[in-house]
Amino acid sequence: MTTTQNPMGTRKIFPLLVSMSIPPIISMMIQGLYNIVDSIFVAHVSQDALTAVSLVYPLQNLTLSLAVGLGVGLNACIARSLGAKQPHEAGTAAVHGLLCTGVHSLLFVLVGLFASRPFLQLFTQDAEILELGCQYSTIVVCFSFGSLFHICVEKMFQATGNMMIPMFLQGLGAIINLILDPIFIFGWLGLPAMGVAGAAIATIIGQMSACAAAVLLFIKTNREIPITIRGFRLRGDVLKRLYAIAIPSALVMAMPSFMISLLNKVLAGISAVAVNVLGIYFKIQSFTYMPSNGLIQGMRPIMSFNYGAGRKDRMHETFVRSLQLVFVIMTIGMVVFLAIPGLILSMFAADQALLDIGIPALRIISVSFFLSSPAVIIAGAFEALGRGGRSLLVTMLRQLLIIPPLSFVLAPVLGLTGVWITFPIAEAIASVVSIFLYRHLMRRI
C-alpha cells in the first residue's frame, strides 16, 4: 500500500475528516444509548433500581475503558504501519490485539464474580439497592467479552478508513438492546418480569450480537490487514507499542469512573438525590461528548497515517479542522443543556426533588462543554501521535486532579453549587495546559 493508494494520504482533509467522522459519531452516540436506555426503563421500576444502575456505571465503564484503550492502541499501530507501507506489521499488531482482548475478557469474569459486591458496598449499605446493583453488575461485567471483542474488531475497521461497518454494528447492538429491554424488564410476551437483571441481559445480548456480526464481516471484507496465526510468536516490542498507548487511553476512559466514585462520596453527605443527578448527568452528557469522541476516532487514523507517511502538513490541517468541528458540537450541547434541563431530566421519571437539584446542576456544568474543546481534541491528537502519557495528563487535569479535590474544599462552603462549578474550572485549566503541551510537541516533531 502507498500513500497515493489510500485516501488518508491524498483526499482533501475536510471532506475526508467528515466522511470518516460521521459514522463513528453515530456509532459512539449509539454506544452511549446502552446505559441510558437501561436507566430510562429501570427508572420506571423504582428509584432504588435507578440508583443501583447509576452506582454500577463506574464499574461498567471500566470494562469499556479497557476495551477502547486497547482498541485505540491497536488503531494507531495499524494505521501507522499501513502509512509506512508495512502491512505485515499491521497484521502482527492485529493478532496481538485479539490475544490481549481474550486475556482481558477472562479478567473481567473474575471482576464480575468477586468484585461487584465489595465495590457497591463502598457506596451503599441499603440492602435493596445493593442486591439490585449486584444483579446488574455481575451480568454486564462477567459477560462483557462480547463488547470487548466487538470494539477490538471495530478499531481494526477504523484503522483502514472503514467507518461505515462499525456504525452499522453499533446500531445493530443498540436496536437489539432497545427491543429486548422492556420485554425482559417488565415481562412482556409471557416472560417473567426480571427488573434490572432483565436490563443487563438485554445489554449483553445486544453486545454479543454486534460482536458476532463484527467478526463475520471482518472475515468477509478484510483485504488490508494480513492476519495469520501460522508461525505466530508473542513479541514484546509489539505489546509495548500497543500498551504504551492502550494503558494511558484506558486510564483516560476510566477517569470518569474514578471521578464519579469520589464525587459520590461528597454528594452522599449532602443529598442522596444529588447522587442520582450526577449519575443521570454522566449518562446524558454522552450526547455531547460521544459525538466529539466519534470525531476524534475519525481524526486519529488520519493523523497517524500521515505522521507515518511524513506528511506533517496534512497532520496539522486535520488537527485544526477537528478542533473547529468540536467547538461547534460543544456549543450546541451547552445551549441544549442551558435551555431544556427539565425536559432532559423528565426522561428519567424525575420527581420535584430531582428537578430542584438537577436543573441548576445541568446548567452550571454545561458551561464546561465549550471550555473543554481544546483539551478534548489535543488529548486525541496525542494518542494518534503515540504520546499516550501526555493524553493521560490532560485528562487527569480534566477529571481527577481538580474536580474531586476542589469539590471536597468547596462543598462545605457552597453546598452542591460548590461541586458543580468545579467542572468548568477544571476544563478551563486543562485546556490551557493542553495547548501549551501541544505547541511544545509540534516544535519537536
Question: Uncertain runs with pLDDT below 50, 5 residues or more?
Answer: none
Q: What's the overall average pLDDT, rounded?
A: 88
Beta fraction of the residues? under 5%
Number of strands: 0
User: In which range does the helix fraction lie?
Assistant: over 70%
Give a verbal description of the structure:
The protein is an all-alpha fold. It contains 20 helices and no strands. α2 runs antiparallel to α3 and α2 (13-43) runs parallel beside α8 (164-186). The longest helix is centred in the N-terminal third of the chain and has 37 residues, at 47-83. The two termini are 24 Å apart. The relative contact order is 0.13.
List descriptors.
84% helix, mainly alpha, 20 helices, 445 residues
Brief overview:
The chain is an all-alpha fold and 445 residues long.
